[in-house]
Amino acid sequence: GTTGISSLAQKLGQILVEKDVQVPEWIREQDRNGDGVISKLEFRVNLRKLLSGASMTLEVRDIDGLFAELDHDGDGKLDLPNVKAALKKLQDECRRAKARVARMQEHLGELSKVVNTYREAVADATALEAGRERLNSMKTDIPPAAQLGTLLAKRNIKIGDVARKWDSDGSGTI
């Protein structure tokens, strides 16, 4: 992760990736006088140039803070090999972070589909329960004579047949 790395360093890594900066060439461009080291002034000028157009305010103290992070021996100069390694690390961390974000976004899309499926299932279950309650209400509100008529009609039974069956002695009374 980028724990302990300044936000300017993270932004620099992001810009290096977005602009597809080739770190070795960029480092050589920073060393204007060709002495193999980058002074604080060279670093300030070139960092401002690289980050121009980035949506952030560059304060001298922030640039100097990043310079101090990269100046491992504290001599006020950045050795080209050390800077190259540090910037490549920032660039690689940014690429890994972008890949993690892309994987998370993909996973979020999949989870969103699952959530929508559950929402639909809840809506269907709620509608089903409401239908059951209406049906039960209808069943208990029907008078017994109507329930008997519905049952006879459903089974296609004629009332005369029922009466004859119940008139066991054939007297015409039940």
Question: What is the makeup of the main sheet?
Answer: 2 strands, antiparallel
Q: What gap, in angstroms, lies between the N and C termini?
A: 91 Å
Derived structural class:
mainly alpha
Arithmetic mean pLDDT: 84
Biggest sheet: strand arrangement = 1-2
Number of helices: 7
Strand portion: under 5%
How many beta strands in the DSSP annotation? Answer: 2
Indicate the radius of gyration in whole angstroms. 40 Å
Order of helices and strands: HHEHHEHHH
Assembly state (oligomeric): single chain
Instruction: Give the overall shape, derived from the CA principal axes.
Output: rod-shaped
Could you describe the 3D structure shown?
The structure is a single chain. The chain is mainly alpha-helical and 174 residues long. It has a two-stranded antiparallel ribbon. The model has no long low-confidence stretch (mean pLDDT 84).
Layout of strands and helices, then pairs:
Blueprint (H helix, E strand, L loop, with lengths): L6 H12 L4 H8 L6 E3 H11 L9 H11 L6 E3 H62 L2 H11 L4 H8 L8
Antiparallel strand pairs: 1-2
Provide a compact summary of the structure.
By secondary structure, the protein is mainly α. It has seven helices and two strands, in the order H-H-E-H-H-E-H-H-H. It has a two-stranded antiparallel ribbon.
Keywords:
single chain, 174 residues, mainly alpha, 7 helices, 71% helix, 3% strand, rod-shaped
